[in-house]
Amino acid sequence: MRYVKICIQIALLYLIYWVGTLIQGLLHTSIPGSIIGMILLFLLLHTKIIKDKWLGDGAQFLLTYLALLFVPATVGIMDYLSFFNGKGIITVAIVLLSTFLVMLISSVVGEKIATRKKQSKNIEEGYGA
């Protein structure tokens, strides 16, 4: 029964993706349908029209196997090895720099969120101004 539930949840996620691509096709926007679908999913979850527990197991299943979904894209790069020929050091530098920037920005944002939560908790408890 659990696997049927996961399949239904994945089908619902796919339906939201499909609606996003439909909206993109109807409006002829430059925003990809997958992004529109993600925004739609965010709005549905934020407004509690769809509860997160309705999609939790299916989303967790997809996240578990997310790395496998990147294999075709990675293999597809093999067709363009000539583009990367002689630029290996630059590519490695870009990957390292972008990884460092993501880690830095994530830590700064996380710290700010934690500080704000602590300050709001202190204000609620009457300890700070």
Overview of this protein structure:
This protein has two domains: 69 residues, no CATH class; 50 residues. Helix content is 78%, strand content 0%. The chain contains seven helices and no strands. The radius of gyration is 21 Å and the shape is extended. The mean pLDDT is 87.
Notable traits:
129 residues; mainly alpha; 2 domains; 7 helices; extended
Radius of gyration (Å): 21 Å
Mean pLDDT: 87
The amount of helix comes to over 70%
Structural class: mainly alpha
How would you characterize the largest beta sheet? none
Order of helices and strands: HHHHHHH
Oligomeric description of these chains:
single chain
| Count of individual beta strands | 0
- Low-confidence residue ranges: none
How many structural domains does the protein architecture include? Answer: 2
Q: Based on CA inertia axes, which overall geometry fits?
A: extended
Set down the secondary structure blueprint.
Blueprint: H1 2-27, H2 33-46, H3 56-64, H4 66-69, H5 71-76, H6 81-84, H7 88-125
Helix pairs in contact: 1-2, 1-3
Brief description of this entry?
With 129 residues, the chain is mainly alpha-helical.
